[in-house]
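Handout, page 2. Input:
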Amino acid sequence: MTQGDPVRFERRATLRLGQRELSRLTLVIVVAVLIPLGWGLYKVYRGFKSQRDVVIAQDNLLRLYKAFWGYSADWDGGMPKPDRWADSIGGYISAPPGTQGGKMGALEGPGDGAEPVHYVYNDLAAGYNFDKPDTKRFGDPSRIVLLFERPGAPLNAHVSIPPQIPGNAASESAFYRQLAFPHYSDSGENATTVVLFLNGKIERLRRADFEAAK
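Output:
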């Protein structure tokens, strides 16, 4: 630099945000934090709801099984006809005071979808007699489905389900095709349904339990 030359100052780039830019940046950060947090809370809520719904289904099926027994006691051990099974056992369903839906509330339960979950009767069970069980014809009653869940099924819904013989892919496949797995439905192979068997056993079955039947 020679004498008389003007003094030059080096300019450095600086980032200066106005109030509008700062507000937008803050909003982006808040949204980026809230979206995964909200999704995580929603997943926790769905998990708790599904767990509660399974408990309700188990309670409903227990009450319905007791109603089947009450009906059979008045009909020489026999079971109701498929086309009016729910109507037939309606008078035998019990419920504590204040139960939502009263006694008939046991015929409906909650699930993950918008439609309420109802129960489907197995035609095969209609020929069973509690007083005189025909084990030669029916085999083990713990493997004969009595009721299973189906969202939106009409009252008195019924289908024919063969005995669930362990290791028999044909019988498992026939049953699997009837199932909807209305609980934990967003959990893939862990999607769950609740089933009542003829001996009163209530089982929680997952989609993964039918892997070989697919």
